[in-house]
Amino acid sequence: MQTAATYADIADCRIDPGPMTEARAHRAMQIHLDCSVDTCRVRRRARGTLVQAGSMVLDPRADR
After folding, report:
1. Dihedral, CA atoms, 14, 64, 55, 5, nearest 10 degrees?
2. What is the pLDDT of residue 15?
3. I want to staple 43 with a disulfide (CB 3.0 to 4.6 A). Which of 32, 34, 57, 63 is the partner?
């Protein structure tokens, strides 16, 4: 079981968490489900990680 402290570095939308593993990016996307990549640095970083890994494919209409 994961504790809240385990994810403390991806809890704050205002702080860029830096490079992420694919698994951590998936978790960050779950934690920040209601956030927008326009305002949430964690979700933006996680989305980039997942796109690079090929785990997420953006709609061509998505604003990068």
Report:
1. 0
2. 92
3. 32
Q: What pLDDT, in 10s, does the model give residues 12-47?
A: 999 999 999 999 999 999 999 999 999 999 999 999
Residue 62 three-state SS: coil
CA atoms within 13 A on the CB side of 3: 2
Helix (H) or strand (E) segment spanning residue 53: helix 41-53
Rounded CA-CA distance 60/54 in Å is 15
Nearest-angstrom CA–CA distance, 37 and 48: 10
Which helix (H) or strand (E) is 28 found in, with range? helix 22-31
